[in-house]
Design goal:
Elements lengths: L2 E2 L2 H23 L4 E7 L3 H16 L3 E7 L5 H12 L6 E4 L9 H7 L11 H8 L8 H13 L7 E5 L6 H10 L3 E5 L6 H6 L3 E4 L17 E4 L3 E5 L2 E5 L4 H5 L4 E2 L6 H21 L1
Parallel strand pairs: 1-11, 2-3, 2-4, 5-6, 5-7, 7-8, 8-11
Antiparallel strand pairs: 9-10
Helix pairs in contact: 1-10, 2-10, 6-7, 6-10
The structure holds nicotinamide-adenine-dinucleotide (NAD).
Nicotinamide-adenine-dinucleotide (NAD) binds next to helix 10.
Length: 286
């Protein structure tokens, strides 16, 4: 049976480190690292994510500011709010919860955030910095996956990794981080041919396709490490159930290590958001 990579436990350790850093910044510099979260509209999943992020920030002793705007908010109003947060010295990190309602331009909103406060790591300057190996604010989900992977592979050098998914928020930054750690990286996606055999050759598979139980035991090399980023809300007998991109039961029998869903990558993502906010606060000190 595979070793379980428990994201709840690991994120609790990271959050403790965050809390000590917060205390240090308060004692030495008199600052309270503060995260501003902007939510536009009423998307139920986004509301849960925002609530969890704010809760964890407060538990770690950080400041948090929530801006909830109605679904009809205009681009100008949102840009004005971001401008205000960019210029507020009490705010160290800004997160605009995605997706935004369809009438708003996400790229424009992301580009409007001060890169030094861009704790999601989505601003083009931060994306470029990551691609060229000079990153400071790295997207939270791939950052969390790297911390989990290091539990099993302290040295990732030479590992053969397949990342399933090529989105800007997970797949691409994940591949960039793995490449920086000297892995051999293949990015697979919806048009990839022979995806099963590619995965079967991999020492590590990172699943970020958003397709419930896409990856089953036939795709996995015995002993491989499997990181499941997927969160798919599926109706089972009239009840809403969260499922990953990996068929957990069967894959756990063959893999060497595996993350569960829920309780795997999700909690690590939030922990890394707080790590980024601390990093941003420290950078803004100098
Ligand atoms: P996305 O829809 O933007 O991208 C999905 C990617 O998967 C695309 O590149 C697509 O080409 C690829 N894909 C789709 N179907 C495929 C298939 N059948 N075979 C191979 N590749 C396929 O999604 P995203 O934003 O990258 O998120 C991916 C998943 O991760 C979602 O389930 C999302 O909810 C989840 N997620 C979880 C966290 C977390 O904290 N745990 C954070 C972000 C996203």
């Amino acid at each position: 049976m595979a070793q379980l990579l428990d994201g709840k436990q690991l994120s609790a350790q990271v959050l403790q480190e965050v809390a000590s850093e917060v205390e240090l910044l308060r004692a030495e510099y008199g600052i309270v690292p503060t995260l501003a979260v902007v939510l536009v509209g009423e998307d139920p999943a986004s509301q849960v994510y925002v609530r969890n992020k704010v809760k964890r920030a407060e538990e770690a002793g950080m400041g948090s500011i929530e801006h909830r705007l109605d679904a009809g908010t205009t681009q100008d109003t949102l840009n004005e709010l971001i401008d205000h947060l960019n210029n507020d010295p009490q705010v160290h990190g800004i997160l605009v919860q995605l997706p935004l309602p369809s009438h708003l331009n996400e790229d424009e909103v992301i580009a409007a955030i001060n890169p030094a406060k861009d704790v999601d790591g989505f601003h083009p300057l931060n994306v470029g910095a990551l691609a060229s190996g000079r990153a400071s604010l790295v997207p939270c989900t791939p950052q969390g996956c790297m911390i989990m992977l290091r539990q099993i592979h302290p040295d990732l050098s030479g590992q053969n990794v397949v990342v399933v998914g090529r989105s800007n928020i997970v797949g691409k930054p994940m591949a960039a981080l793995l490449l920086q750690a000297d892995c051999t990286v293949t990015i697979a996606h919806s048009r990839t041919k022979n995806i099963e055999s590619l995965c079967r050759n991999a020492d590590i598979v990172v699943a970020a396709a958003g397709r419930a139980e896409l990856i089953n035991a036939d795709w996995i090399k015995p002993g491989a490490t499997v990181i499941d980023v997927g969160i798919n809300a599926i109706d089972v007998d009239g009840k809403r159930k969260l499922m990953g991109d990996v068929a957990f039961e069967s894959v756990a029998r063959i893999a060497g290590a595996i993350t569960p869903v829920p309780g795997g990558v999700g909690p690590m993502t939030i922990a890394c958001l707080l790590l980024n906010t601390i990093r941003a606060a420290k950078d803004q000190l100098s």
